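ok here's the first one, seq then struct tokens
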Amino acid sequence: MALILIVEDEFFIRQAAEWAVQDLGHSTLAACDLGEALKHLSASPAIDALFVDMRLNELAVGGYEVANQAVALRPNLRVLYTSGTPLTSNITDRFVPGGQFIQKPYSADQLSKSMERLLN
């Protein structure tokens, strides 16, 4: 299936996301911040998508900055944002082109549908 880079600063949420994505049949790489994400993006040419928390503690703009830098390195990278904050137009205005969103907390079924939509 696909190789998904998950960027989430909360350990238990990151681990749960990894397991959920792996349960869908995908492989995962995980990062807790921008630096780790960029290392994975530089080292692994096979990454198909980025699953990123919009509110990373390390950066004021968090997942937006991770996605922007990731897409600068990989223009065809697909991005799925996630957050506990409800989706508004001022949030989607900051998405990379084609970026999609899934609200936390999400169910396995919601994640499955979002991943399928993202990858197809």
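and now the second one, same deal
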Amino acid sequence: MTGPVLLPDWAQLEEAVPGATAPMRRYLQQIACVLRPGSVSGADLALRSFAAFLAETSPVTSLTQVTRRHIEDFKPWLAARPGQNKPRLTTATIAHRLGTLRMFFVRITEWGWDEAPARVPMFPGDLPRQDHPLPKALDDAAAAKLLRAAQADRRMLIGVTVEMLLRTGLRVSEYTGLPADAVVLIGAGPWLHVPVGKLHEDRYLPLHPQLVTLIDAYRAAHVPAGHALLLPRENGRPLDRHTVTRFINKAGAAAGLPHIHPHQLRHTLATQAINRGMSLEAIAALLGHRSLDMTLRYAKIASRTVADEYFAVSEKVEALYGQPAQLPADAAGPKMTRLRREHHRLLGNGYCTRPPQLDCAFESICETCSYFQTSIEFRPTLAAQHDHAANHGQTSRQELFARLIHQIDDGQAS
């Protein structure tokens, strides 16, 4: 196994502190029976770090000689270590190394190993506190730009990849490993079977009909019959996370967006769903979360419920400062009348007067649904909606209605 710069391997450590390395390697053999290789590799690095510290500063002949003082000296030693292509290890890496070392001592004590110290020399407080930033999701406008750019790319696989990740919330490893028979029919609709992955559980996701069409079109054009994967590259080789990242950022660059990490598309779907009324339980099932604690992080992002309730009480709050909740119609003046008029949005049979701060989560939702159909008799209404959006600077609505009108005209021409 390879590790950070200058960290000795087990053979070198065995010569310096054999009494410490033997139980550590035995421990790694035990956890390898129940943990994934990546987790075992992380534990290997953590234990080798501590063994290297002992070999360098405080050689011991037995692990039973390890005391609290060793741990207190190890923490600054570890904090000063170089990382991979970095002058120092990150806080997250230090916390992982110390946490793994503490669990090593806890477990061998619980297991009754003779090599265990008289008492566990580490405490939870030895681990540095880490920041817990909220998931970085794309806002609705950025997500729409990304999707349009991906759909316009000449390489079909880029459009398929971005749309699959945005609409399903799959992890990259799940997406690249989808088997050829992942799309199944349950009842009257298509579903996506996601095999056992990161959390050792498989799940089924409802699949948007548009995605089924995209998948079928790509497979018909580029995937030979009998291929094991659902969406391999055009040459038949499997996708990997680096390629997926390049695909996303090619579309992102075309859309004028900064660098995007693939996991942001997963965060984007979760944020969009929770702010449009989807329950936490349903989102957890969709994303394959084992605990609702993982899903609750999304409830903190731009919560539509918080915004709605805030503006619902804002008039009452304004009353505390001596301002009327609403000006009389005859006292509003031309400026207020103009502002009210500009906030109106033309609907099919009336107007929406919702303030722009509370831009409706369901605006134009029908027109963007794959089941939506329109025809020539609705062209005057769509044209009026297009002109109304243009006059009020509502660019996204203007583009939407222009597309629908264009589809009608193309249909009539053919």
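notes on #2: The two ends are 64 Å apart (CA to CA). Residues 344-414 form one domain.
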